[in-house]
From TrEMBL:
Keywords, alphabetical: Metal-binding, Pyrimidine biosynthesis, Transferase, Zinc
Cross-referenced SUPFAM superfamilies: Aspartate carbamoyltransferase, Regulatory-chain, C-terminal domain (SSF57825), Aspartate carbamoyltransferase, Regulatory-chain, N-terminal domain (SSF54893)
EC numbers, comma separated: 2.1.3.2
Protein name per Swiss-Prot or TrEMBL: Aspartate carbamoyltransferase regulatory chain, allosteric domain protein
Length: 142
């Protein structure tokens, strides 16, 4: 783990709703990174009470769609030389490729290895996606 306050280069995903930090961590497969990763749970936030934070050293190439699918209200800060050089507000992607896995065991995207999963946003408020291959509804909240 790295110091909460110090990150020379990398990404800080801030203002994650409490409980969702671990989901982002898992969906981004951050346990497989060689770089330093910090997952901070229930940090005190002046604006929203508690929040989760994810810090990733060096790796500036994470899948932002995966973050926004889990928590579109999170903010992503890109850090260079200990300074925030870019702040990104997230938006739910209309189409999500290769992130979510279809839960339908007979879906062609789960049975055929070379087919990338593809989901289409059908309800922004409820964060619901529909599989482009079998119409299976994926509820991100679950
Ligand atoms: Zn499917």
């Amino acid at each position: 783990m790295i110091e909460i306050t110090s990150l020379k280069n990398g990404i800080v995903i801030d203002h994650i709703k409490p409980g969702l930090g671990i989901k982002i961590f898992n969906l981004l497969n951050l346990d497989q990174l060689d770089d330093e990763v910090a997952l901070i749970l229930n940090a005190n936030s002046s604006s929203q009470g508690k929040k989760d934070i994810v810090k990733i050293a060096n790796n500036l190439d994470i899948n932002l769609d995966a973050v926004s699918i889990i928590d579109p209200s999170a903010t992503v800060n890109f850090i260079e030389e200990e300074k925030v050089v870019e702040k990104k507000q997230l938006e739910l992607p209309e189409v999500s490729k290769g992130i979510l896995k279809c839960q339908n065991p007979t879906c062609v995207s789960t049975t055929e290895r070379n087919i990338e999963s593809k989901f289409i946003l059908i309800d922004k408020k409820e964060k619901m996606y529909k599989c482009a291959y079998c119409d299976h509804i994926y509820d991100v909240e679950e």
